[in-house]
């Protein structure tokens, strides 16, 4: 069965006819194809570029593939047709080609410092073992590794880099030597500086970025996945920590409060920004639209740039071709123009994944 879709195709902004044959797109008419959308605005399927399918609600590792499937379907039904998993304590390479699940770009387990990161989530290693662990986790994922660049150091009473700068630089080098890209979690000013200068491929959160550093990221082409939804939870984290770690609590609140300006500066400097929700643990799946609206309303990204950050530009970054001849038959159709009113992305009229009609 072939499908026919007609509508304003973004980013080209032209009314076009697409045919979906198997899991591919063609502009050559296919006789007998059934029309499944006529009118509306057609986008290459959305991406959640920072998502965790291996972490259950509440923060514990999942214990079955079915749990990962259920989380992935929640994202899919919101129009997210490819996911970059930013660290999973539960390996699920079996799901890479599952027909009704979003396409996957996966990191292995988080590589984290000892006894500091979220319980049971990362592989916790001292400086001497970091590079070898990165090499092993590069094989566990399919193109990415995830480094935890900083976390609270209870001895210091504040955020602190996970390891010394030489070790963190060696971690990035080990990822690249293994042929994968490295994503790094950072909240603090000090860790993000080390990691950007070490040549990391993407900064996750990046609350500690300075104006100088965003210029450096733009120069290098380093990506930023701000996860603004996550940063809004810093208030709760700070309140829980305040009695024992007042300095940390104040630091987290300050990072939260300046974050919209940080993302705005990165955007204005030309840093490539992508939509990621950080779903898993404390944040629900299926919230890509919320993150898109935050990037527009709080960080001043234009609606078209937000759509690019969630769709065609993110797909290109992660290697999932969009609506081009021979591209992937993954698309979302909206009745209203999301460039005119971004809230339209909350309500996909049609979702097609791998050539299969999901909605
Ligand atoms: Zn995360």
Task: Quickly describe the structure.
The chain has 359 residues and is of the alpha/beta class.
Features:
single chain; 359 residues; alpha/beta; seven-stranded mixed β-sheet; four-stranded parallel β-sheet; 11 helices; 18 strands; 24% strand; binds zinc ion
Counting helices, strands and paired strands, the structural category is alpha/beta
Cross-sheet strand order for the largest sheet: 3-2-1-4-16-17-18
Mean pLDDT: 97
Radius of gyration: 20 Å
Number of helices: 11
Helix content: 25-40%
Share in β-strands: 15-25%
Shape: globular
Q: Which hetero compounds are present in the coordinates?
A: zinc ion
Order of helices and strands: EEEEEHEEEEHEEEHEHEHEHHHHHHEEE
How is the biggest beta sheet arranged?
Answer: 7 strands, mixed
Number of strand segments: 18
Give the end-to-end Cα distance, rounded to a whole number of Å: 16 Å
Low-confidence segments: none
Q: How would you describe this protein?
A:
There is one protein chain. The chain is of the alpha/beta class. Helix content is 32%, strand content 24%. The protein contains eleven helices and 18 strands. It has helices at 65-76, 130-140, 165-177, 189-197, 211-220, 228-231, 234-241, 246-269, 288-297, 303-310, 312-318; strands spanning 2-9, 14-21, 24-26, 34-44, 46-51, 80-85, 103-106, 111-112, 123-124, 144-148, 150-153, 158-161, 181-186, 202-205, 223-225, 331-334, 350-353, 356-357. The protein has a seven-stranded mixed β-sheet with strand order 3-2-1-4-16-17-18, with no helix packed on it. The protein has a four-stranded parallel β-sheet with strand order 10-13-14-15. A three-stranded parallel β-sheet has the order 5-6-7, with helices on both faces. Helix 9 packs antiparallel against helix 10 (303-310). The chain is globular and about 70 Å long. The two termini are 16 Å apart. The structure holds zinc ion (ZN). Zinc ion (ZN) binds at residues 50, 52, 86, 278.
């Amino acid at each position: 069965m072939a499908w026919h879709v007609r509508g304003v195709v973004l980013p080209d902004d032209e009314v076009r006819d697409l045919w979906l044959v198997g899991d591919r797109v063609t502009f050559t008419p296919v006789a007998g194809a059934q029309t499944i959308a006529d009118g509306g605005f057609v986008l290459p399927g959305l991406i959640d570029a920072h998502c965790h399918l291996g972490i259950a609600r509440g923060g514990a590792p999942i214990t079955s593939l079915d749990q990962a499937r259920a989380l992935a379907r929640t994202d899919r039904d919101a129009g997210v047709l490819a996911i970059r998993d930013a660290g999973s304590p539960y390996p699920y390479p079996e799901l890479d080609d599952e027909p009704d699940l979003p396409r996957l770009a996966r990191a292995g387990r988080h590589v984290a410092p000892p006894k500091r990161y979220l319980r049971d989530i990362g592989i916790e290693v001292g400086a001497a073992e970091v590079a070898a662990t990165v090499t092993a986790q590069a094989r566990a994922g399919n193109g990415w590794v995830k480094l935890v660049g900083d976390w609270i150091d209870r001895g210091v009473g504040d955020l602190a880099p996970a390891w010394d700068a030489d070790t963190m630089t060696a971690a990035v080098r080990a990822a690249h030597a293994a042929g994968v890209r490295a994503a790094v979690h950072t909240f603090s000013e000090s860790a993000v500086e080390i990691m950007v200068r070490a040549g990391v491929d993407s900064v996750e959160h990046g609350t500690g970025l300075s104006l100088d550093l965003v210029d450096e990221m733009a120069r290098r082409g380093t990506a930023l996945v701000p996860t603004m939804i996550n940063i809004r939870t810093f208030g709760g984290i700070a309140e829980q920590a305040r009695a024992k770690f007042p300095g940390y609590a104040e630091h987290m609140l300050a990072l939260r409060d300046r974050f919209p300006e940080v993302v705005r500066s990165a955007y204005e400097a030309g840093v490539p920004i992508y939509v990621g929700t950080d779903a898993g643990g404390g944040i629900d799946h299926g919230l890509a639209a919320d993150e898109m609206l935050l990037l527009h309303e709080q960080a001043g990204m234009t609606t078209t740039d937000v759509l690019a950050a969630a769709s065609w530009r993110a797909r290109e970054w992660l290697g999932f071709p969009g609506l081009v001849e021979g591209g992937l038959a993954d698309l979302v159709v909206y009745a209203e123009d999301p460039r005119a009113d971004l809230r339209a992305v909350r309500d996909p009229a049609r979702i097609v994944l791998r050539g299969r009609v999901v909605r």
